[in-house]
Design brief:
alpha+beta, homodimer, DNA-binding, 6 helices
DNA sequence: CCCTTGTTTCGAAGTTTGTCTAAGTAACTC
DNA sequence: GAGTTACTTAGACAAACTTCGAAACAAGGG
């Protein structure tokens, strides 16, 4: 068991309840807030975007680091935040670590903001 | 293009570019991060949920305040943050202030997290 | 083994955020 | 006008977050 890449899965419960649906409980709201806190940073948004848009659906940290004027530890920290929010996963293959998005986590968020066509129009 | 759309094609417009689409610029990422910062709080998530799920699509502040063990100024502060993020709007009608969600803002977020079926499956 | 690349942890600035109390504005009623 | 209710703004403060540098840790190649 590698302590390196463990994540805390916060997306396991109700996958797609919309925002205009049932009332959020306190603990559910706190859990969701943690996910948005992970997204509430320009660097992390760009990291997630770069990973999601990567060829083959995965990106090596070695490629990501050079795109920011931040130290390697800082990039690593941001990736860890995204990982703990359940938005991405990483696995080490040889010297490098590759990250990819967790589709159910993103789909859950997409469903959260979905509105009925009668309102969205 | 000019066809009747019951469901909005959220991937077509620039406002709703998906996360796995074009690379986010720094400004765009910063602006999006501001929206997520507004969502990154349990109280604000519950407020947004309550407003979105309200009968008639709007909720009076007087009804919201009683649902939290927080002072009125604190609730007002959170509503202001949501308002400044463009997620809700409020208007005063007589003594009371009513808030409702801004559908395009939510639809944009829904589209942001939308994934192609090939990945999302 | 040592060396290189890449990641994580730790501790210390500086900044931001959530909450409060107190004071201010807006509208209704007498 | 004065008083009451509803909501917002202003100022202050503790808690949390961001970022960095230095150092430790992991994996592979010579």
């Amino acid at each position: 068991m590698s302590k390196l890449l463990k994540i805390e899965d916060v997306t396991a419960r109700e996958c797609c309840a919309p925002l205009n649906g049932p009332v959020l409980g306190e603990e559910e709201a706190a859990e969701l807030a943690q996910v948005f806190k992970a997204l509430a940073d320009p660097v992390r948004l760009r990291l997630l975007n770069l990973i999601a848009a990567s060829e083959g659906g995965e990106a090596c940290v070695c490629d990501l680091t050079g795109l920011f004027e931040l130290s390697a530890p800082t990039i690593s920290h941001h990736l860890k935040v995204l990982r703990q929010a359940g938005l991405i996963t990483g696995d080490r293959r040889g010297t490098w670590v590759y990250y990819r998005v967790v589709p159910p986590a993103l789909t859950r968020l997409s469903g959260l903001f979905a509105l009925p066509a009668s309102i969205a129009g």
